Amino acid sequence: MVSTQELMANNGLSELILSIIPANIFEMLTGSERTSTLSTVLFGMFLGFSVLQVKKRKPEKVQGFIDFINSAKEVVLSMVREILKLTPYGVFALMTTFMMTNDLFALAEMGRFLLASYTAIIVMFGLHLVLVSFFGLSPKTFAKKTWPVLVFGFGSRSSMAAIPLNVETQTQRLGVDEETANMSATFGTSIGQNGCAGIYPAMLAIMAAQVMGIPIDFNFIVQLVAVIAIASFGIAGVGGGATFAAVAVLTIMGLDITIVAILVSIEALIDMARTALNISGSMLSGVITAKRNGSLNTTQYNAQSIAPIQKESEISA
Question: Which UniProt keywords are given for this protein, alphabetically ordered (predicted)?
Fold first, then answer.
């Protein structure tokens, strides 16, 4: 099996892009190639687009296929749940092997990784505030009004569970129109997660590359950024979603995925901050999009008083 680095060295970026286009969808689903994950994402996007096109013209023709996909999804999710029940045993075995073959200094390294993760997340929060000020808005106001949602995400470790609070905060406190708020909050749970699908896989990829002796040069960074951007599509906004994102990125890059299992013991501690960062990114997208579209209510955004969030039933009453 050819690694991504070897493919890039021998054929260049153009060949890597062409290798993502599946020639045989059944072979692609077996995962026999390093680019199988990206090929699956590409095929899924194209299939979904085609289904939507047919649904517009002849909805009755495609309804059976949609029902089949939904049924298959439920079956696969049931299988995943059963497999996840065995995960603690596998993690215990890997952790036991790690402890038997390493000393206490290895545990200290895990603490350093935890500290490095929080440092990277804090820096990204700072970049969010810089982007807010770049578009002529007050970063202090943004931080003050989004703080309750971030705290909820930090505790729940689920950006998906925070969607209602996310939307209500954008519309009632930040002045974002309802359509933009709904789109940014929903997309933010599965696409472009700054923490779970961005920072965490990137850090693990760098660590794995160093262990394997792979040079971290400009070409490696470009490959990693491209792979992370594509692989971030469809990452579930629930606790532990970053683990699947990291496995996908490491597999595509041809790196050792054992490091993911080793860090599972502290993954929950990192996941809390990552989730808060994901939610901040989705709200930032909503605010900036509304600002660019001219639909942002700046008076509501700049209002110093923070009114309690009202439920839809209370508003309609």
Answer: Membrane, Transmembrane, Transmembrane helix, Transport
